[in-house]
Amino acid sequence: MVFRPSPQQIAARKWEIKRRYSRKAKVGKRTRSMAAIRLSELTRWLDDAYGAGVELEPDATSETILRVFAHHLGGLPDAPRRITAWCDRYTPWLGLRSREILIREVVSCPIKYSADTLAWKIRLTDAKRTQLKITTIGAIDCNRDQRKARDKAKRAERERNRRAAKRAKPRA
Predict the structure, then answer these.
(1) How far apart are CA 85 and CA 107, in angstroms?
(2) DSSP string, 63-117
(3) Of 21, 48, 87, 116, whose CB neighbour count within 10 A is largest?
């Protein structure tokens, strides 16, 4: 005797499959948001510049770093909770009123920084950018056009090497 599922069971299984697949990341060029990628790179820079998990000193530079991180955290879901957690970890000296004003500002009108503007804000050099493998933030000593020309030259060199290796490979 062969067991055949009822139409309701088939519909339920199809619904479950659809639900499972819809939760997965979309296949494409970028599966994470730019804010998430930038936050990862900014955290890498912060850990290198100040030390991992170090509390920032209450000065103008720390205020700039706080604003940059807050505006990037504003691009993620549940921004107020994330900003509060970041402030608790890195800037516990920030008052509750100041924190609330910052969160309100970020949620109402988040700033989207260009790569070079962000580089100037955090004073990121090209050497440090290369060392930390940062790709979405510019450099203060190498503008966008210079980076594009350098990447184009690297790509051309890789292509030349690939073609030379292909020619040198004996055919069977």
Answers:
(1) 15
(2) HHHHHHHHHHHTTSTTHHHHHHHHHHHH-TTS-HHHHHHHHHHHHHS-----HHH
(3) 87
Helix (H, G, I), strand (E, B) or coil at 156: helix
pLDDT digits (tens, 9 = 90+) for 86-144: 999 999 999 999 999 999 999 999 899 999 999 999 999 999 999 999 999 999 998 88
- The full set of domain ranges for the chain reads 34-141, 143-172
Q: Which residue has the tokens 């440090």?
A: 128
- CA–CA distance, 97 with 77 (Å, rounded to integer): 22
Q: How many residues does the chain have?
A: 172
- Distance from C-alpha of 114 to C-alpha of 11, rounded to nearest angstrom: 48
- Cβ burial of 111 (10 Å; 0-12, 13-18, 19+) is middle
Q: Are 44 and 139 in contact (CB under 8 A)?
A: no
Q: What is the pLDDT of residue 18?
A: 87
3-state SS, residue 16: helix
List the structure tokens of 3: 């067991």
pTM here is: 0.72
